């Protein structure tokens, strides 16, 4: 479980996050949604430690990440996995080497065990055939799946996904969503996902936080999104005429 | 005040980055693997260009010395002698490192810069890897290890170029050989190699700094690559003055 308490982040004189307080429970996919520039990527970066918050607390199962020293942060980061918007695979390494990298770096397994573990992870994302290819030889969807395999190689307790469906077609997006959700439940991970994708919101949004201009505007789950009377959320989710009509029919 | 503040701030950030770079590696095995890869990429892959440039410059220096320095008042070995001194003292260490700043420096800055903008460095940080140390330390050590070999290869190729000219009849091979061997001071060879260690450190660390601190996209990566070459070249030239004074 990850708890955020009164989190503020400012860049020079611009306040990007204005007192976010929320909890992301384990074993479910927690989505952060909001318009571009609303602060959701900054929130994610603060949670994983790529940015230092101006004030506030980030508690990983009770451990305050903000007040940790460098060494403690490095140790905690070994319990994290992250899937980036661009997949962020190491382009000088093959798919298998990418998945093996965290194992090579931090595990004390033998080479055979590390290889076996990486192959298991690739099997889990249905990519065992592509293990000897380089990232630029596989499709965007496959790259995201490799990123998922790399993120789960060390059995992380916390999984972070920054717009994992960005640039993917709707069908592949559903595959990625399903994979992330299944892995979250299977390994009882605390998963936090930034997304713009309404299919993700409706499909795997076990817990949703909607951010507007750095403020926590709404929290709920996928069953409450469609019937919410929060105007800002409704305007964001049901932006197109088609979706507005669909909502009216649903409500 | 910006013209004072900005370079000082940049220097401060460079020192802080070097502090991160020279910290204890997480896993020596992985660093060793990277170190071997960098020796290949930065050193061995540069041998071709070093040999080619040195060969032709050696030949040109020999011609210029013959045409411009030789006279009935000068001994016949003076062409070989001056060619050797130029190659050993300046060309194979300083000028070759300026050329390497262009080839290797831009390579390092653009590689690390691209890793930065494609979030590969963020991915390393999230995993708990000291990305600065993992990416930059093997490059610095790899280039510092390979640079003496490149300098020696450059010297040999330069002499080869001069011999090539002697075979064309511009100078006799005997006069050239005598000139190359005349009053040979072994320290000059070591001076070139010692200087090159400093230049290699400048090339690898400064280029890596510019790549690592890129913010933005492909335009900024290109700018970082250019900045790294410009600053490496300037620093090599400044360092050359001090090192030459110190070692002479």
What does this structure look like?
The complex is a heterodimer of chains A (251) and B (248). Chain A has 251 residues and is α/β, with parallel strands linked by helices. Chain A has one domain (2-250): 3-Layer(aba) Sandwich (Rossmann fold). Chain A is 41% helix and 25% strand. Chain A has helices spanning 40-48, 70-77, 95-106, 111-124, 140-152, 170-187, 198-204, 222-225, 231-237, 241-250; strands at residues 2-11, 14-24, 28-33, 55-60, 63-64, 80-83, 158-162, 190-195, 207-212, 215-220. In chain A, the strands form 2 sheets. A 6-stranded mixed beta sheet of chain A has the order 6-7-8-3-9-10, sandwiched between helices. In chain A, helix 6 (170-187) links the parallel strand 7 and strand 8 (190-195). The model of chain A has no long low-confidence stretch (mean pLDDT 88). Chain B has 248 residues and is mainly alpha-helical. Chain B has 9 helices and no strands. Chain B has helices at 2-21, 28-43, 47-69, 78-117, 120-126, 131-167, 173-181, 186-212, 218-247. The longest helix of chain B has 40 residues, at 78-117.
């Amino acid at each position: 479980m990850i708890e955020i308490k009164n989190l503020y982040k400012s860049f020079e004189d611009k306040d990007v996050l204005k007192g976010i307080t929320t909890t992301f429970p384990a074993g479910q996919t927690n989505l952060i949604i909001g318009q571009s520039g609303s602060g959701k990527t900054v929130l994610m970066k603060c949670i994983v430690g790529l940015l230092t918050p101006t004030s506030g607390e980030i508690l990983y199962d009770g451990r305050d990440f903000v007040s940790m020293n460098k060494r403690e942060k490095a140790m905690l980061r070994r319990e994290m996995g992250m899937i980036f918007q661009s997949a962020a695979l190491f382009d000088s390494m093959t798919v298998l080497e990418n998945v093996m990298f965290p194992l090579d770096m931090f595990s004390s397994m033998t080479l055979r065990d590390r290889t076996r573990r990486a192959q298991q992870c690739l099997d889990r994302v249905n990519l065992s055939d592509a293990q000897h290819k380089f990232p630029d030889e596989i499709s965007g969807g496959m790259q995201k799946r490799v990123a998922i395999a790399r993120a789960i190689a060390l059995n992380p307790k916390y999984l972070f996904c920054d717009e994992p469906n960005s640039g993917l077609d709707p069908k592949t997006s559903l595959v990625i969503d399903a994979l992330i959700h299944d892995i979250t439940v299977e390994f009882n991970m605390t998963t936090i996902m930034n997304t713009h994708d309404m299919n993700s919101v409706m499909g795997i949004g076990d817990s949703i936080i909607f951010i507007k201009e750095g403020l926590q505007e709404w929290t709920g789950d996928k069953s409450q999104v469609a019937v919410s009377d929060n105007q800002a959320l409704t305007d964001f989710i049901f932006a197109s005429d088609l979706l507005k009509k669909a909502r009216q029919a649903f409500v | 005040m910006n013209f004072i503040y900005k370079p000082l701030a940049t220097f401060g950030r460079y020192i802080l980055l070097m502090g991160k770079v020279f910290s204890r590696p997480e896993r020596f095995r992985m660093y060793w693997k990277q170190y071997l890869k960098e020796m290949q990429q930065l050193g061995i892959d540069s041998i071709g260009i070093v040999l080619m440039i040195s060969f032709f410059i050696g030949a040109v220096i020999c011609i210029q010395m013959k045409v411009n320095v030789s006279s009935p008042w000068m001994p016949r070995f003076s062409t070989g002698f001056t060619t050797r001194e130029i190659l050993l003292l300046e060309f194979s260490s300083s000028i070759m490192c300026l050329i390497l700043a262009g080839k290797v420096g831009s390579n390092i800055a653009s590689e690390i810069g691209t890793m930065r903008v494609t979030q590969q460095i963020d991915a390393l940080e999230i995993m708990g890897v000291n990305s600065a140390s993992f990416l930059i330390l093997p490059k610095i050590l790899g280039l510092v290890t390979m640079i003496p070999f490149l300098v020696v290869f450059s010297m040999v190729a330069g002499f080869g170029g001069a011999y090539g000219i002697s075979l064309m009849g511009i100078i006799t091979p005997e006069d050239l050989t005598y000139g190359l061997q005349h009053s040979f001071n072994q320290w000059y060879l070591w001076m070139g190699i010692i200087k090159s260690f400093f230049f290699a450190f400048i090339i690898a660390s400064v280029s890596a700094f510019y790549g690592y601190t890129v913010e933005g996209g492909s335009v900024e990566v290109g700018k970082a690559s250019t900045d790294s070459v410009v600053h490496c070249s300037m620093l090599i030239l400044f360092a050359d003055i001090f090192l030459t004074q110190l070692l002479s």
